[in-house]
Design goal:
Length: 441
């Protein structure tokens, strides 16, 4: 069985309280040992001058949007206006666009130290399928949690998306069954777990939300959607459903340890208590929330109450980048600007990006560095200009690189010396530029 020894790190953050040592032994995709003075007959990776962390976990993304960054007409719009600008562009996407955008986005995430990513794909123009993203992720080498989303209420029925991008609800549910049966792997170490994810309360019916929850529980998969993203979102819920977002999802069966909601910027104290009592998870997306002017999510209050919270980069069209380590830093800074300098330590933010994200995605096999855990490991070179002068090698989010040196996923090296090993990145970027040129034309 193949072995790899990561040896001589300046610091190892296991995300447990125990002192770790400087070495990590990987055997067959699993962490075999963490300590000092470990030996191997396999490959040795010199980690002198480096910090080692678990691979980071991204709990919310729209990977298809990687081909629509910095679209001029939507750069300064709020959420609903931004969506109305982008919908017509996305309506022209093909399966090739979905595959390319997924690989581009996952490559960017990998270079930021991310080993596991969810994805929320809720529109399927021109024959596109969730399969396009799943195949792309397998080629990239990251652990993947794709969710089969949908929009069923178009503009003619009072919804936000154009009618051309909505689906029949029965067809959507049938395709959920298909993709779960074809791709979902519940086993420990799984590289692909599928979720069910109607897009949002303003784009699907009550009936679809309720039916999706029943189907997910019948299939034993997780549920995901957007919730309480900004003031417009809450006003829509009050006007359309006669209740706040938290009450809406509770009534429809969308709370529990198998559910996570993206954003939750506008949760009030009662909704936070509901999520804490039911162990309902939240994907906190600080950069996107800033970019769209949505507000600052009450993350400190959520964490103090016991709500499971992970981090998400959100779609690259609303961020407009996909760097999970930068997302963690932004989460720390926003908590401090809203609640004071002692509101969130750098380790708290990094915990959201690792163990927190793992819990939100229902994973007990990733997010920590300990024997028996899957070998998802990020190595950060702390000898560059970003950390020069730093007294604390473990303070990655205060003074450290934004790009990982090495990344292992299931024991396989996906990034080596700052370069992606699984894909031809220059070719990928060239293909993306050609695709954008055609979309512009």
């Amino acid at each position: 069985m193949a072995e790899t020894l990561i040896r001589g790190a300046d610091a190892v953050l296991t995300m447990d309280e125990a002192k770790a040592g400087s070495d990590i032994l990987i055997r067959g995709g699993v962490i075999a040992a963490v300590g000092t003075g470990l030996a191997t007959v396999g490959e040795v990776v010199d980690a002198a001058g480096c910090l080692v962390t678990p691979g980071l976990v991204n709990t919310h993304h729209h990977l298809y949007q990687t081909l629509t960054r910095a679209v001029p007409a939507g750069q300064d719009a709020l959420l609903f206006g931004w969506l109305r600008t982008l919908y017509p562009i996305w309506a022209r996407f093909t399966p090739d666009h979905m595959h390319l955008a997924t690989q581009l986005g996952l490559a960017e995430l990998a270079l930021s130290g991310c080993s596991t990513s969810s994805d929320h794909l809720y529109l399927y123009p021109n024959g596109s399928r969730l399969d396009d993203t799943i195949h792309a992720a397998a080629e990239t080498g990251l652990r993947f949690h794709p969710t089969r989303g949908a929009m069923s209420i178009g503009e003619s029925a009072g919804g936000l998306p154009p009618d051309a991008l909505v689906e029949g609800e029965a067809a959507m549910l049938a395709d959920c069954v298909r993709v779960v049966d074809a791709f979902h792997d519940p086993a420990p170490g799984s590289m692909c777990r599928v979720g069910i994810a109607p897009c949002s309360p303003f784009s699907v019916s009550r009936e679809l939300m309720r039916d999706a929850a029943r189907l997910a529980r019948d299939k034993g998969v997780r549920l995901h959607t957007h919730l309480a993203e900004n003031d417009e979102d809450v006003r829509y819920s009050l006007a359309t459903f006669g209740c706040r977002p938290g009450q809406y999802v509770e009534d429809l069966g969308w709370t529990g340890a198998d559910v996570w909601h993206a954003h939750c910027v506008k949760l009030d104290a009662d909704e936070i208590d509901l999520f804490a009592r039911t162990r309902t998870g939240v994907a906190h997306c600080p950069c996107s929330n800033c970019r769209l002017g949505s507000g600052i999510a009450p993350v400190r209050a959520m964490l103090d109450a016991g709500v499971p919270v992970g981090l998400g980069v959100d779609g690259s069209a609303s961020n407009d980048m996909a760097s999970l380590v930068s997302e963690a830093r932004q989460a720390m800074l926003l908590a401090r600007v809203s609640r004071g300098a002692d509101a969130m330590a750098s380790q708290d933010a990094l915990r959201m990006a690792t163990t927190g994200g793992a819990e939100v995605l229902g994973r007990d096999d990733i997010g920590r560095l300990a024997p028996g855990m899957r070998a998802d490991v990020a190595i950060w070179d702390m000898r560059g200009i970003e950390a020069a002068g730093s007294w604390d090698r473990a303070a990655l989010l205060l003074a450290g690189p934004r790009r990982v040196r090495d990344l292992f996923v299931e024991g396989r090296q996906v990034v080596r010396d700052g370069a992606l090993t699984t894909l031809d990145l220059p070719l990928l970027v060239e293909r993306a530029e050609r695709a954008v040129t055609k979309l512009l034309a």
